[in-house]
Amino acid sequence: MTDRRRLHSNGRVADAGLLGQVEAELFVEGDDRQVIVPVTPILSRPDGKRERELVFGEGVRLLEERDGWVFGYALRDGYAGYLAAGDLAVPKGPPNHVVQARMTHALGEPDFKAQTEHLILSLGAWVSVTGTEGRWAEIFAPEGRMYVPATHLRVASAVEPDPVRVAERLIGTPYVWGGNSALGIDCSGLVQAGCLACGMACPGDSDMQEAELGEALPEDAALRRGDLLFWKGHVAWVVDPETLLHANAHHMAVAYEPMAEAIARIEAQGDGPVRARKRLETKT
C-alpha cells in the first residue's frame, strides 16, 4: 500500500477499512459529498498540483476537512487527494442521470432563450432529475431548480456500448494535464470517460490503466476498435486498424492521428515504443 494516489490516509486520518494496515491518528467511516461546481481538481496536497479532476455531481468520500480543504477520495475510482471544501456539499438527492453530450448548460428556466443563471455541465456529470417540462429535465443545483435539455442526459443505469464513440464526442477538447472534463482533458482522462460511460471500472492514470484494464495482446495481433495502446506515460484509443484517438500535447487537443505516424512520432520524440496493447470487454 505505497501508492499515495490510492492510499486513503494522510497520516492524521484514515479510512476505517484500513485499521490495522496503516498508521494514523484517527480512523473514520467518512461522509459522502458531491461536487457542486463544473469541475474541481484533486490535488496532491493543499494548494498542490492537480492530479485528476471531478465533474459536477460526482461523489467524494470525505475523511477530513481542515483549513478549507477536504482530504478524501473519489467514489468513482478511489483516487485520493485534497479538494477545495467549498466545491463540495452534502448530496441533495441521489444522482439518477448522467450528461451524455460533450457539454451542456443547466438554465434557470426551461427556455433556450433564458437569460437567467446557468451552470456548465461536462460529459460525465451526474445530476438528480426531479421532473420534466416539455423537452427539459428539471434538476437539483446549488442555485435551486435548473433545467437541462433532456436529450443531453441518459439514465444513470443505462450504459453505452462503444467507449470510442463516447471519446469521439470530445474531439477538439483542449489538452489539460490531469483533466477529466470537456473543458480540458488528458490521455488517461479520455480513456476513463469512455470506460465509465460503458459501465467499465477504470482507474484514473495511464500507468494504472495499463496494469489493470483488459487483456494483453501480442505485438502481431490485429487491432480493432476499442483496443488501447500504451506508451510510458501515454495511452490512446484504437479507432480502426489505421487510426488512433487520443488527448495529446502534440495537437494540444483530443484528435485523430494515423496510427503509424503517431507511433513513429512518439518514439522519435524520446518516449519509446508502444509497450502494451490491451483489449477491453464492453458491457452491452
Highlighted features:
284 residues, 13% helix, 4 helices, mainly beta, single chain, 5-stranded antiparallel sheet, 6-stranded antiparallel sheet
Mean pLDDT equals 96
Largest sheet: 6 strands, antiparallel
- What strand order characterises the main sheet? 20-25-21-22-23-24
End-to-end Cα distance, whole Å, is 34 Å
Q: What spatial form do the alpha-carbon principal axes imply?
A: globular
List unreliable stretches of 5+ residues. none
Rg (C-alpha, Å) = 20 Å
Structural class: mainly beta
> What is the total tally of β strands?
25
* Estimated helix fraction: 10-25%
Give the helix tally: 4
Beta percentage is 35-45%
N to C succession of SSEs: EEEEEEEEEEEEEEEEEHEEHHEEEEEHE
Structure in words:
It is a single chain. This protein is 13% helix and 38% strand. The protein is mainly beta. A 6-stranded antiparallel beta sheet has the order 20-25-21-22-23-24, sandwiched between helices. Strands 8-7-6-3-9 form a 5-stranded antiparallel beta sheet, with no helix packed on it. The protein has a 3-stranded antiparallel beta sheet with strand order 13-10-17, with no helix packed on it. Strand 4 and strand 5 (50-55) form a beta hairpin. The chain is globular, with a radius of gyration of 20 Å. It starts with 12 loop residues before the first strand and ends in a 5-residue tail after the last strand.
Secondary-structure blueprint:
Layout: E1 13-15, E2 26-28, E3 31-35, E4 39-43, E5 50-55, E6 59-66, E7 69-74, E8 80-84, E9 88-89, E10 97-99, E11 103-107, E12 118-122, E13 126-127, E14 129-133, E15 136-139, E16 146-149, E17 153-155, H1 163-168, E18 180-181, E19 184-185, H2 187-197, H3 206-212, E20 215-216, E21 228-231, E22 234-240, E23 243-248, E24 253-258, H4 259-271, E25 276-279
Parallel strand pairs: 1-2
Antiparallel strand pairs: 3-6, 3-9, 4-5, 6-7, 7-8, 10-13, 10-17, 11-12, 14-15, 15-16, 18-19, 20-25, 21-22, 21-25, 22-23, 23-24
